[in-house]
Design brief:
The chain is built from 4 helices and 5 strands, in the order βααβββαβα. The protein is globular and about 55 Å long. The N terminus is likely disordered.
Length: 167
Amino acid sequence: MSPEGTPTSIRRAGVEDVDRLAPLFDAYRGFYGLPADLALSRRYLRERLARNEAVILLAESTAPRRPEHDDAAAAPRPAGFCQLYPTWCSLAAAPIFVLYDLYVAQAARRGGVGAHLLRAAAAHARECGAARMDLSTARTNAPAQALYESLGWRRDEVFFTYSLDLA
Protein backbone atom coordinates (compact mmCIF):
# COMPACT_ATOMS: atom_id res chain seq x y z
CA MET A 1 0.00 0.00 0.00
CA SER A 2 1.13 3.52 -0.67
CA PRO A 3 0.84 6.33 1.90
CA GLU A 4 -2.69 7.14 0.71
CA GLY A 5 -3.68 3.50 1.19
CA THR A 6 -3.70 2.75 -2.54
CA PRO A 7 -2.87 -0.78 -3.62
CA THR A 8 0.46 -1.48 -5.26
CA SER A 9 1.28 -4.37 -7.59
CA ILE A 10 4.73 -5.65 -8.45
CA ARG A 11 5.64 -7.34 -11.69
CA ARG A 12 8.70 -8.13 -13.75
CA ALA A 13 9.34 -5.36 -16.27
CA GLY A 14 10.11 -5.93 -19.93
CA VAL A 15 11.55 -3.83 -22.72
CA GLU A 16 8.05 -2.47 -23.33
CA ASP A 17 8.21 -0.79 -19.89
CA VAL A 18 11.37 1.25 -20.52
CA ASP A 19 9.53 4.55 -21.04
CA ARG A 20 7.67 4.04 -17.74
CA LEU A 21 10.82 3.01 -15.86
CA ALA A 22 13.23 5.62 -17.22
CA PRO A 23 11.96 8.58 -15.14
CA LEU A 24 12.27 6.49 -11.96
CA PHE A 25 15.75 5.32 -12.94
CA ASP A 26 16.77 8.88 -13.76
CA ALA A 27 15.50 10.06 -10.34
CA TYR A 28 17.44 7.20 -8.70
CA ARG A 29 20.63 8.35 -10.41
CA GLY A 30 19.85 11.89 -9.27
CA PHE A 31 19.58 10.65 -5.67
CA TYR A 32 23.26 9.73 -5.97
CA GLY A 33 24.18 13.16 -7.33
CA LEU A 34 24.30 12.38 -11.04
CA PRO A 35 22.87 14.87 -13.54
CA ALA A 36 19.51 14.15 -15.12
CA ASP A 37 19.80 12.29 -18.42
CA LEU A 38 16.57 10.61 -19.45
CA ALA A 39 18.00 9.44 -22.78
CA LEU A 40 20.88 7.67 -21.02
CA SER A 41 18.44 6.12 -18.54
CA ARG A 42 16.25 4.79 -21.37
CA ARG A 43 19.23 3.42 -23.28
CA TYR A 44 20.75 1.72 -20.24
CA LEU A 45 17.49 0.07 -19.20
CA ARG A 46 16.62 -0.99 -22.75
CA GLU A 47 20.04 -2.65 -23.18
CA ARG A 48 19.87 -4.51 -19.86
CA LEU A 49 16.37 -5.81 -20.54
CA ALA A 50 16.90 -6.62 -24.23
CA ARG A 51 20.06 -8.59 -23.43
CA ASN A 52 18.48 -10.32 -20.42
CA GLU A 53 21.31 -8.97 -18.26
CA ALA A 54 19.05 -7.76 -15.45
CA VAL A 55 15.77 -8.45 -13.77
CA ILE A 56 13.79 -5.30 -13.05
CA LEU A 57 10.77 -5.46 -10.79
CA LEU A 58 8.31 -2.60 -11.23
CA ALA A 59 5.96 -1.47 -8.47
CA GLU A 60 2.82 0.23 -9.73
CA SER A 61 0.05 2.05 -7.94
CA THR A 62 -3.14 0.37 -9.08
CA ALA A 63 -5.66 2.70 -7.43
CA PRO A 64 -7.54 5.16 -9.62
CA ARG A 65 -6.35 8.76 -9.56
CA ARG A 66 -8.45 11.51 -8.08
CA PRO A 67 -11.01 13.05 -10.45
CA GLU A 68 -8.79 16.03 -11.32
CA HIS A 69 -6.48 13.56 -13.11
CA ASP A 70 -8.91 12.62 -15.86
CA ASP A 71 -6.26 11.41 -18.31
CA ALA A 72 -5.65 7.69 -17.86
CA ALA A 73 -7.27 7.81 -14.41
CA ALA A 74 -7.35 4.04 -14.07
CA ALA A 75 -3.90 3.32 -15.52
CA PRO A 76 -1.31 2.01 -13.05
CA ARG A 77 1.43 4.51 -12.21
CA PRO A 78 5.07 3.56 -11.56
CA ALA A 79 5.78 3.78 -7.83
CA GLY A 80 9.25 2.22 -7.64
CA PHE A 81 11.60 -0.40 -8.98
CA CYS A 82 14.47 -2.65 -8.09
CA GLN A 83 17.11 -4.00 -10.45
CA LEU A 84 18.82 -7.33 -9.90
CA TYR A 85 21.87 -8.67 -11.66
CA PRO A 86 22.34 -12.44 -11.77
CA THR A 87 25.85 -13.68 -11.05
CA TRP A 88 27.68 -16.51 -9.30
CA CYS A 89 29.33 -17.18 -5.95
CA SER A 90 32.41 -19.35 -6.36
CA LEU A 91 32.60 -20.26 -2.67
CA ALA A 92 28.96 -21.38 -2.51
CA ALA A 93 29.25 -22.84 -6.03
CA ALA A 94 25.81 -21.43 -6.66
CA PRO A 95 24.00 -18.57 -8.40
CA ILE A 96 23.36 -15.35 -6.50
CA PHE A 97 21.70 -12.04 -7.31
CA VAL A 98 23.08 -8.57 -6.70
CA LEU A 99 20.35 -6.11 -5.84
CA TYR A 100 22.00 -3.06 -7.34
CA ASP A 101 19.20 -0.51 -7.55
CA LEU A 102 16.18 0.15 -5.37
CA TYR A 103 14.14 3.32 -5.73
CA VAL A 104 10.69 4.43 -4.61
CA ALA A 105 9.08 7.55 -6.07
CA GLN A 106 8.80 10.40 -3.59
CA ALA A 107 4.98 10.28 -3.62
CA ALA A 108 4.98 6.55 -2.78
CA ARG A 109 7.51 6.59 0.07
CA ARG A 110 6.75 5.47 3.60
CA GLY A 111 3.98 3.24 2.35
CA GLY A 112 5.72 -0.13 2.14
CA VAL A 113 6.62 -0.08 -1.55
CA GLY A 114 10.33 -0.62 -0.84
CA ALA A 115 9.60 -3.57 1.45
CA HIS A 116 7.26 -5.09 -1.16
CA LEU A 117 9.95 -4.75 -3.82
CA LEU A 118 12.58 -6.35 -1.58
CA ARG A 119 10.29 -9.27 -0.75
CA ALA A 120 9.45 -9.76 -4.44
CA ALA A 121 13.17 -9.67 -5.30
CA ALA A 122 13.92 -12.34 -2.68
CA ALA A 123 11.07 -14.49 -3.97
CA HIS A 124 12.38 -14.18 -7.53
CA ALA A 125 15.91 -15.11 -6.43
CA ARG A 126 14.61 -18.14 -4.53
CA GLU A 127 12.60 -19.27 -7.58
CA CYS A 128 15.82 -19.08 -9.62
CA GLY A 129 17.68 -21.25 -7.10
CA ALA A 130 19.95 -18.46 -5.85
CA ALA A 131 21.93 -19.10 -2.68
CA ARG A 132 21.72 -15.47 -1.55
CA MET A 133 21.33 -11.84 -2.53
CA ASP A 134 23.91 -9.09 -2.00
CA LEU A 135 23.57 -5.32 -1.99
CA SER A 136 25.58 -2.22 -1.20
CA THR A 137 24.26 1.09 0.05
CA ALA A 138 25.74 4.43 0.98
CA ARG A 139 26.97 4.57 4.57
CA THR A 140 24.80 7.66 5.05
CA ASN A 141 21.59 6.03 3.77
CA ALA A 142 20.21 5.17 7.21
CA PRO A 143 16.56 4.81 6.09
CA ALA A 144 17.50 2.16 3.52
CA GLN A 145 19.72 0.36 6.03
CA ALA A 146 16.87 0.25 8.55
CA LEU A 147 14.58 -1.20 5.89
CA TYR A 148 17.08 -3.88 4.86
CA GLU A 149 17.75 -4.90 8.44
CA SER A 150 14.01 -5.03 9.23
CA LEU A 151 13.67 -7.63 6.46
CA GLY A 152 16.52 -9.82 7.70
CA TRP A 153 19.45 -8.48 5.66
CA ARG A 154 22.72 -8.54 7.63
CA ARG A 155 25.56 -6.09 7.23
CA ASP A 156 28.84 -7.75 6.28
CA GLU A 157 31.35 -7.17 9.07
CA VAL A 158 34.03 -9.45 7.58
CA PHE A 159 34.78 -8.24 4.06
CA PHE A 160 35.73 -4.82 2.73
CA THR A 161 34.48 -3.74 -0.68
CA TYR A 162 36.92 -2.21 -3.15
CA SER A 163 36.43 -0.66 -6.56
CA LEU A 164 38.83 0.11 -9.40
CA ASP A 165 37.81 2.98 -11.65
CA LEU A 166 38.57 2.01 -15.25
CA ALA A 167 37.21 5.14 -16.93
